[in-house]
Amino acid sequence: MTVSDEILVDVKDVKVHFPIKRGVIFDKTIGHVYAVDGVDLQIRKGETYGLVGESGCGKSTLGRAILNLEPPTSGSVEFDGIDIAALKGEELRHKRQDIQMVFQDPMGSLDPRQTVESLLLEGMKAHGLTKDEKQAATRLRDLLKAVGLPVAALKKYPHEFSGGQRQRIGIARALSVNPKLIVADEPVSALDVSVQAQVINLLEELQDEFGLTYLVVAHDLAVVRHISDRIGVMYLGAIAEEADAEDLYTKPLHPYTRALMSAVPVPDPLIEDRRERILLQGDLPSPANPPTGCRFHTRCPWRQDTKCDTERPQLRTLQIAGVPDSHRVACHWAEQIESGEVAMHTVKASLTSQTDHTSGGDDFLGPASVQEAL
Amino acid sequence: MTETIENTRTRGHSEEPLLSVRDLTVTFTRQGEKPFVAVDGVSFDVRPGQTVGLVGESGCGKSVTSLAIMGLLPQRGVRVEGEVLYGGTNLLTQSKEQMRDRRGRDLGMIFQDPLSSLNPVVPIGVQVTEVLERHKGLSRKAATPLAREMLDKVGIPDPNRRLKDYPHQLSGGMRQRALIAMALACAPKVLIADEPTTALDVTIQAQILALLKELVEDSGTALVMITHDLGVVAGLVDRINVLYAGRIVERGDRHPLFAQPRHPYTHGLLSSIPRLDGERGTKLTPIPGSVSDNLPWANACAFAPRCSQPIDVCVEKTPEFVEDGPRALRCHNPVEVSR
Ligand SMILES: Nc1ncnc2c1ncn2[C@@H]1O[C@H](COP(=O)(O)OP(=O)(O)OP(=O)(O)O)[C@@H](O)[C@H]1O
Ligand SMILES: Nc1ncnc2c1ncn2[C@@H]1O[C@H](COP(=O)(O)OP(=O)(O)OP(=O)(O)O)[C@@H](O)[C@H]1O
Ligand code: SF4
Ligand code: SF4
Ligand SMILES: [Mg+2]
Ligand SMILES: [Mg+2]
Which of A31, A86, A356, B135 has the greatest number of CB atoms lying within 10 Å of its CB? Predict the structure, then answer.
C-alpha cells in the first residue's frame, strides 16, 4: 500500500476528561479521570497508525474520541479536513460511514440473535448501499470472500463460529459500508496465538485491496510494530514518543519506550539470554491523579532534579544526527540521554494504591534478594 | 551465559525427580454429556531446582493439569487417572486433609487471576501469616514479622502498612506479588505458576518474571511455569513441554527446542507470532483453522486438520510419544532438521 502525504485524520490537542462523581443525593463531581490529556496526531491516507501503551493509558478512549463516540472535552478531530464534532444529521451520518470500528471482543460486539447476513446488511441498508436484492447478494458474497469465510456462513449465528472467524465477521461488517478509515481496538488480543496471524494478515491484505487507512490500538508492541507504518507510544493520557515503526524500533528515544521495548519477551532463548532489561519500579500512577511535570517521572530511571517533576515536556523533534523530524519525543533530556550525558540510575519506587493516591515513598532498590528463610 | 545454561541443565539431570507426573488423564464426566478427556496421558518430571514449562493455547489442558497435581479438581463429575509422585507418594490417592497439608508446604501454587485467589475480606498480612501458622505451627505473633519479611522480599514497598491492606487496595502487580509471598512463605519444594503474568501489563510482567526467577534460583524451588506465551518461557525455563488438545506433542530443553522445533505445531506457532525483533514487511505464516478443529486422538493425530505436512497415516493411527533423552516428539512426519 502506498502511503500518500495527504492527511486523513488530524487530531489537535484532544482531551477527554471523565468526571468522578460521589454522593447519594447530589451528584458531586469530586475530580476527573484525565484519560486523554492533550494529544496531537496525524494519520495519512493509506497508512497504518499504531497506538500502543499499557492498560489505562487512554488508547481506547482516544480511538473513540476520533470516532466522536466519546466527544472530546476539548480539542478537535478533523476527518478529510472537516471537523466531525460540528457535523449534524445527514452530513454526520454520511461521515460516519467513512469511519468504522473493529472491536477487541468479537462476540460482545455482534448481536447474538442476528444471522451473519442480517448483521452485514444492517449497515449497508442504513447507508443506502443496497439498491436491489441481487446487487446486495453479490456484495455479501464479495465481502465474505474478502475476509475468507464460506458463503454458508451467511445463514449462521455468531456463536456458531470460532473466535478468529467472529473477528472476520466483525471486519466484514466494518468493510460493508466502504469506509475510508478503520479504527481497530485490540483486534487480535482476544484470539488464540495460532489464530492471531490469520487476522493480522487479513487486515494487511484488505488494506492493499481497498486502499484503507487504519488506526490500530493495541497493548502488544510486537503486533503493533508488525502492522504499523507509524507508531505513537502513549503513557498516562499523552503521547510519549511518535515515529516511523522502523525508527522507533531501531532508536527508541523516550525512557518509557526504552523500558517498554526491553520488557517485551521475544520467543528466542538466544536473544532472551543476552537482553538487558530496564525494569521499571512501581506501578502505573492513576490517571485521576497524574504526576506533575513529566508523567513518567515517578518511574523514570533517567529522571533529573530539574524540570522533570515541574514542567510537562511537549512532543518535539530532536537535534540528533540521523534522527528525522518525523521522530518526536516528549522528554526534556532526550538528547542528553542519547549522548550518554545523562545516565540511568535506580529509582525510588513509590506505591500506587488502588484506593488512595498518597505514595509510600520507601527506598526500594529493585526486588529484594532472598538469601535465607526460603 | 551459555555456561549457566549448561549448569542448570546438568543440575536438572543429575538428581531424581522431585515431582513425577505419570500418564495423567483427566476426564470430565458430566451427567447426560459425552465424557470429555481434557488431559490425556500427560507425563513429565520436575527435578530439584529445575524450571519446567507447560505451553499451549487456550483449552489445551494446562490449568486442569495443574489443578489435578494440586488436588484441587472438583470431587464429582471428574475422573483422574495416572500418578502424581511426590517423594514416593502418589498424591492422587491422598485424602483431602493430607492434600490440604501439602499445599503451601510441599507444593505452592500461583494462579492467573490474583484477585480470585486471595480472600477479599481478609487483609493480605493475615493471609500470609495464616499460611505460616497452618504449616509451621507458629503463633500469629511469631508469624507476623515473617510475613512482613516475605512481603518485603517480593518487593512490596512499605510492607508494614501493606500488611493491613485488603486485596482490592492493591494494584494487579502488587496482588500478584502478595500471592507469590503466600505461595513461597513456607518454602515449598515445587511452585506451580499458572499464567502468573497474563493479566498484567508488560512492564509489570517483566518485574514479576524477574522476581520469580530470582526467588526460585536463590531458594532452589522447582518451578512449573504454565503459559500460552512462548516468549515468557524462552528466557525462563530449562525444559519446555508443548501441549495440544490435552497431550504433550513435543518436549525439549529450551535452546534446542526453539532452534529446531520438530513438531509442525511448535514450528507453526513460532512462525506465526509477530516478533518485536522480526523483519518488518515479511508476512506471518498463520496456522490455518482454529483450536477447536481437532480430530480425536484415537486413530489419528488431533492436529492433522491444521497441519502443514500431514501424511496418510496421520488420520489412521495415533502418533506415539517417542522420547530421546530430554527431547521427545509425537508426530508421524516431523519437520526436517535443517542445517
Ligand atoms: N466512561 C468512562 N468513565 C470514567 N472513566 C473512564 C471511562 N472510560 C475510560 N475511563 C478511564 O480512562 C482511563 C483510560 O481508559 P482506556 O479504556 O482509554 O484505556 P486503554 O489504554 O484502552 O486501556 P486497556 O489497555 O485496559 O484497554 C482509564 O483509567 C479508565 O478507567
Ligand atoms: N470443570 C470442568 N468441567 C468440564 N470441562 C472442563 C472443566 N474445566 C476445564 N474443562 C475443559 O477442559 C479443557 C482444558 O481446560 P483448561 O482450563 O485446562 O485449559 P487451559 O489450557 O488452562 O486454557 P486457558 O489458556 O484458556 O487457561 C477445556 O476444554 C475446558 O473447557
Ligand atoms: S522528562 Fe525527565 S522524567 Fe520525563 S522521561 Fe524525560 S528524563 Fe524521564
Ligand atoms: S502426526 Fe501428522 S498431522 Fe500430526 S503433526 Fe505430525 S505430520 Fe502433522
Ligand atoms: Mg482499551
Ligand atoms: Mg488455564
Answer: B135
